[in-house]
Design a protein that fits this description.
Elements lengths: L1 H20 L20 H12 L6 H15 L1 E2 L11 H12 L1 E2 L1 H16 L3 E8 L7 E10 L2 E5 L1 H6 L10 E2 L3 H4 L2 E8 L3
Parallel strand pairs: 1-2
Antiparallel strand pairs: 3-4, 3-7, 4-5, 5-6
């Protein structure tokens, strides 16, 4: 009788310890597995969005257009006060945009960049530089560029959505055109890779 009571009391104490501190006693360590919550990967996030927004039979240019419109329509603006161009920033910013549904030009550029890459396989990069498309004065900015054939094209979802009289003006525009050279100054590039 005493053995049963001791076993039950020991089990109750161990269960209480596990529930309150999530620490296992050494005797039971091999039999208990505590799983960490998993975070959805950037690849999974973009795959889900692409599947919902484009059709498999769409041309690559149609996919780019649909995702450009989706990004403009779906995401809102939230200012970033201290951007840091550290390695891997683009992945962090894209995931944050997909989760929070708002962000700065850096978030817009990263989100669209990964969507475009996932949907088309084209070479895609994010440019961090300057623009005078919002105010007429040069200011820090980021945008997406997609390479089709031998030419790079600007796809700036943030500028297209928020600059005055800009609808369609900053989608798939040749980087080397005089109109785009007057608005953008490139600084550094990040190649979009999963």
């Amino acid at each position: 009788m005493k053995k049963k009571i001791v076993k039950k009391l020991t089990a109750a104490i161990l269960m209480g310890c596990l529930m309150t501190t999530a620490v296992c006693v050494p005797v039971m360590a091999d039999s208990i597995v505590i799983e960490e919550p998993t975070e959805e990967s950037l690849k999974d996030m973009t795959t889900d969005i692409v599947k919902k927004q484009v059709k498999s039979g769409d041309s690559k240019k149609t996919k780019l257009s649909k995702l450009f419109k989706y990004t403009e329509k779906t995401y809102g603006y939230a200012r970033t006060t201290s951007f840091s161009n550290k390695k891997g920033w683009e992945k962090t910013y894209a995931k944050k945009m997909f989760k929070d549904k708002k962000g700065s030009c850096y978030h817009f550029a990263a989100a669209y960049g990964f969507l475009a890459k996932q949907a088309t396989g084209y070479p895609v990069r994010i440019c961090v530089g300057q623009t005078k498309g919002f105010s007429g004065r040069w200011q820090p900015h980021a945008w997406t560029e997609v390479k089709i054939g031998t030419k790079w094209y600007i796809c700036d979802t943030n500028m297209d959505k928020f600059a005055a009289k800009s609808s369609g003006k900053y989608y798939l525009k040749s980087k080397t055109s005089s109109a785009m050279k007057a608005v953008y100054k490139a600084g550094s590039y990040v190649t979009v890779k999963f």
